[in-house]
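Fold this sequence, please.
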Amino acid sequence: MNDDAQFHAPYGCPCRAHGRRRFTALLAAAAAAPLAGLTALAASAPAQAVTPECRRSRAAKLVPADAVEGAAGQQYVQMLREAQGQGALAPASHPQVQRLRYVAQRIIPFTTECNDRSAGWRWEVNLLGSKQINAFCMPGGKIAFFSGILSQLQLDDDEVAVIMGHEVAHALLEHARERMAKSTATSVGLRVGAALLGLGNLGDVGAQYGAQLLSLRFSRDDETEADRLGLVLAARAGYDPRAGVRLWQKMGEATGGKAPPQWLSTHPAGEARIREIEGKLPGVMPQFEAAAKPERRFGPPPPTRG
């Protein structure tokens, strides 16, 4: 069966946040329970030396993690409900869902070294029918891929792992909390402080965070940090980090080389990103070579036509 035939609606889920770019904002399932066993995996991570790529900004601590993760979880539930209502939420039996969840099962055990909160996250991985080339991991471990990124780029498992590692890295490094702390310092900072002291309405603050998640944009530094940590996570999970070079070459071909100049974008330009990845590989390849390799391999879905 064509992988896409298991969606009940054509590509192009109409969920209202799908037109926006945010790797830490969107989806999740009231209709889909957390993946069995994924949360337990985070608590059983093998011991590792402290990883320099795991360093987090102190600014993130100015925003309560529970409030951000709670708001993200609500957004994820709402988005999955909408996707399911439009027939754009892939079922657990979908071959690409099984693929994404298998890759996640290999990456998650390595997350607690970077952020011990991840041991308590209720990890979820879902696939949405949409032509968009996008994926994200929300605060609290809520992962989603759009089918377009798999079909249009014809990703192999190593490339999928590099993307997933990158998105998970955003959550582990708490880039959403950091962006919120910096952007709300003047507007809601006083209310956050009041809530922490028991003098304000934390629920109101949580609503503010939920609204921010839908419009959040990461900085170039955030993206570079997520690239670096993502390569480490993929390598330790047994996936070849050299796939990061192929991934961004494919991304450049898919966009026709029309990405904005680096200084005008929140994302490092493709060529700069590739150079950064190539410079990181000598330090990451030994971790890949020492890692246990995946016992299962999957193929991409049929390419998108039209």
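Residues 62 and 181 are 6 Å apart (CA to CA). The chain has one domain: 3-42+55-290.
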